[in-house]
Structure formats: C-alpha cells, structure tokens
Amino acid sequence: MTEYQPGDIQPGSDATPLSRREARKAEAEALKNSASPTEQSAETPDEPAQTGLLAFETITAADDSVPAAGEAASDRPSKKKSRAAKAAEQPPVRRTLATKVVGVFGELLITAGVFVLLFLGWQLWWNSIVLTNEQASDASSLADDWKLPAVTGTTPTPTPTTTGAAAAPVNYGEPAVMGAPSAGNNFAILYVPRFGADFKRTIAEGVDPQTVLNKGGAGHYEDTQMPGEVGNFAVAAHRDGWGSAFIKINELQIGDPIYVETQDGWYTYRYRDTEYVTPYGVGVIDPVPQVEGATPVDRLITLTSCNPLYIASERIIAYGAFESWQPRSAGPPAEIASVVGSGN
Amino acid sequence: MYAALWRVLPGPVWLRIILLLILVAAVVYALAAWVFPWIDVLITPTQEVTVDR
C-alpha cells in the first residue's frame, strides 16, 4: 500500500541520513494519499467476505502512519511517544457477526478436542487407577471383616506356629461350600499373583455391568457353582478399562495359582488352559465346560473376559482346576499372606 | 466464548486465573464422575466380557 517511487531508495546504495529522511518524508506523503481511502473502506466494512483483509489493512495503516508522522517531527524521542500514540489511535479490530460466529465455532472445536483427549485419559488411565485402588481397599476391608476374632486370654493358639504347613500341604478334607449370596453382594476375593504380586479383586454375585463389573472387580455367573464346589465356579471381569482386572489373562502359565478367599477360607486353583469362543459360547460356564448336561466330577474355576483387547468380538476363557483349600483357622496361603487384608 | 467468560469473571487477573482453575477442575471432575462413565457404556465395546445367549 505504501507506494515507493522507483529511485526513492536504491537497495544497496549507501543513502546518507539526510536522503533517508527525505525518503521517509516522501513515504509519509505517499501514505497520506493512500491511507485515506484505505481507512475509509475499513470503517465501512460492507462486504463481510473481506473483513479479515480490511482489518489487517487497518492495522498496517496505523503501524505505518504513526511512526512516520512522529519521525518527521523529531527523530529520536519519537519511539516511546509513538508507541503510546499507536495504542490510542489504533482502531480496534472490528468483529462482525461472521467473525464472531467463526471464532465461537473454532473455540467449540478446540473444546471438543480437549473433551475427547480427556475422555481417553479417563478411560485408559484415570478410571482404572481409581477403580484399582477402590478394589484394593474393598478387598482388604472384606478380608478384615472375615478375620477370626483375636484369640483372647487363656486359649492357646497353635495355628500361627505351624511352619510345617508350608512344607507339606495339610489336607483339610472336603472344602466348605458357601450358599449362594444375594445379587451384587461381594462374597469372595480373587488373588492371582501372575496378574501382579498385590493383585486382589472382589467377586460379587452376578455379571451385570452396571452394578458389578463396572466397579472394577469380578462377577460370578449366577447359575454356576460356588468356590470349592464340584462343578464350575465361573467369573467374568473387564480386561480393557473399568479397572482392567483381567488385562493379563492371556499371560497365565500352566500351574499358576488362582486363589479365592471366602468367609470360610482359601481355595487354591491352578491355571490349566485357555480357550477362545464367540460371545455366545455359553458352554464354557457349564459344570463340565463344553459338555452340556454332563455330571461334574472336578472342581473348576473359569475366568471369562473380552478378546481381542479393545475390540471384544470374541471371549477369552481361562480354566483352572481345584488343588486344595484351607479353612480360615489355617491362615492364608503363604504366597498371598502379605496381600490378604490390609496387610498390617 | 472464552473471551466473554474472562470478561464475566470478577476481580483482578490473579483472582480470575484462580477462579478459572477452580472452574476447570469442577468441570473435569463432573466429566469423570458422571459424563464419561455414561458415554463409555454407550459407545465402547469394553462392556462385553461375559458369555451370553
């Protein structure tokens, strides 16, 4: 917009201060001529399509004209004055309805992006941390509730000193089997060292997502057997999100212990094998898995979760076989002794 | 939108910043406590961990 006359300033020529000042004067003059139509058009932005361009031109016009006028009067002290003058004289950037709408739309888009990022952070990270912590404290307090009352006074207690129990497993006979709990009730605790040394989750009755599984623990298929019972003790839990209890279900190795604690004691299962089925593969929770109507002989545990991770078009099924049980008076299995209860 | 919010907030700049941070914290908490669980149940397949007929 500033119209330089050819030959006003030669690039590369060593112009003296005098000639430079003259050049500025000419520039200011040229600006006066060209600036007035520009400002006029900027003050009457009738065409909304050009608003952005006009606003830009208005700013540049102010930028150029003010120091040029100041420097024409005096060269040096004009700097500060011109800045203040610029602030005062610069016309505010005009916002038409169109620019406002575009601006709000842009802010909405940014907000939506932040919203999606927050959601992912919540789903993949925050929620699982919160639920895992809740599960740990829930399982601890449940185990504390079941603790036998401290032996008082005269009765001597032989149980804590039975060090031989670890070396040679004691046979406690037929495992105690509890009755069916009411739906949504936490009735057991699951310990799987392969999932993490301090892994413990509550097991509640039922596999309803809202009331059981989304609390981060495992849910017991209501029509399946109870821990220690002949047949199939089947539980489900989330694998990706909502606490991700079974995220490592594919890392189980044959013989890995799976401990279940109830008010009666501890049941030890050993991981046996894994199976992948469709979402409708209900045979896996039969008393004899995949053999409908057969009479069970073994005591099994079945863990079900989704597969593949984050897609869930299949189900991953891990089976374990019952090995032993020990009543509450015998204390917890050595491997999880430090994890049971609140650990003090 | 956000410029209007900034204008509506009272007090000097430092107070506005504190108020903004409190607002943001409240919004994020509300999202995590109610909105995100609701959306997750609606849109993600992670709900499906059980075998079913």
TrEMBL record, chain B:
Transmembrane feature ranges: 13-36
Protein name, entry field: Membrane protein
Q: Please report the organism this UniProt entry assigns to the protein.
A: Agreia bicolorata
Keywords, alphabetical: Membrane, Transmembrane, Transmembrane helix
Domain of life, per UniProt, equals Bacteria
